[in-house]
Amino acid sequence: MSTDRSSEADEPLLVTDPREIAKIEAENTLRQFDAAMAELRKWIANPRYRLKPSIVLKLNRVALERLSKYAGVFRPGDIKISGSGHVPQSAERVPELIEEFCDYVNENWDRRSAIHLSSYALWRLNWIHPFVDGNGRTARAVSYLVLCAKLGYRLPGIKTIPEQIASNKVPYYRALEVADKAASENRIDVEELEKLIDAHLAAQLVDVHHKAAGSLPINPTVTAPIAREPISEVDHQKLKIVRHIETHPVIYSFLGLLIITIVGALLAG
């Protein structure tokens, strides 16, 4: 398997200097993340908010602004993915497939876990490959948006899941290939991606705890969790507590308020 997957299409580039392209891509990646978090705020504020094709288009537009004439529009022709055996569907099917993708996420919102929906989004957008370029970046942004929206808040942490994936893409590509193979057999199997997202989520939250406790400085060059030292039993238990609190925020908010009220009453007496 290749260590890189990239789109192969005839694309009218707006910039040709490799250094300038890298500079704009880096700037656009930050702007794309901000755009995703802006959508998250809308999603959290509106219980009826749903994933829509326009969101996917918007996030790709931000990723490719100043780079491509096709920024934010579905690819006009067929495309190949170098380094992968998967052949995306024809261009004419892309709008329909994106609608089906959004429908799956929305219809399974209350039935499936945040990690499953996030993993499905990460795979399915790569599988559809709806754009001339920026498919991976857009898939990772949408996946992270879905994860945070399902949980109901923006996840803390400096080294986010999309950044961890981008820093070590080999496990990510491997998991995509497994899901692609299942799709060729008319099955949906994103278990390997779920494991990947789970590990990256654990790394993101554990790093937050270490930074808060001052026990381990955050290292922005840390690669994917697959290459990290195993999480200690103590950290594992801490992570379980963090996840439980994050899964039941209302309960813990109520308990906190109750404790404060009782302590206040005792002090007042």
Plain-language structure description:
The longest helix is centred in the first third of the chain and has 28 residues, at 18-45. The chain is mostly helical and 269 residues long. The chain has a single domain (6-231), classed as Fic-like fold. A two-stranded antiparallel sheet has the order 1-2. It is globular. It contains ten helices and two strands; from the N terminus they run E-H-H-E-H-H-H-H-H-H-H-H.
- What assembly state would you assign to the polypeptide chains in this entry? single chain
**Mean pLDDT across every amino acid position:** 84
Radius of gyration: 20 Å
Number of helices: 10
**Percent range of helical residues:** 55-70%
Portion in strands: under 5%
CATH architecture: Orthogonal Bundle
What structural category characterises the helix and strand content? mainly alpha
Task: Please state the overall shape, judged from the principal axes of the Cα atoms.
Answer: globular
Element pattern in H and E: EHHEHHHHHHHH
User: CATH topology, which one?
Assistant: Fic-like fold
> What is the C-level CATH assignment?
Mainly Alpha
Largest sheet: 2 strands, antiparallel
Query: What order do the strands of the largest sheet run in, or round the barrel if closed?
Result: 1-2
Beginning-to-end CA distance, first to last residue:
70 Å
Low-confidence stretches: 218-231, 250-256
User: What's the total number of strands?
Assistant: 2
How many separate structural domains? 1
What is the CATH superfamily?
Fido-like domain
